[in-house]
Amino acid sequence: MPTIIVLGNVKIQIFGDDHAPPHFHIITPDGEALVRMADFRVLAGKVRGRDARRALQWASQHREDLIDAWRRYNSR
What we know:
The structure is a single chain. By secondary structure, this protein is of the alpha+beta class. It has a 5-stranded antiparallel beta sheet. It has one domain (3-70). The chain contains 2 helices and 5 strands; from the N terminus they run E-E-E-E-E-H-H. A hairpin with a 5-residue loop joins strand 4 and strand 5.
């Protein structure tokens, strides 16, 4: 599970050979959430609001990088 970035105690990860739709995981000491890349909707899980905002702000500024990483790790 490649870590794309670490923002303090928040990690954004993309798992290889993962299921559709393209998504990333927000991992924190207190929780985990699965976020769809198309619209940044949380599909599963829960993280604290502050941590979610930090991760989603970064993700919105780096959407193309996340999509490229998804394609690289999920090229089946």
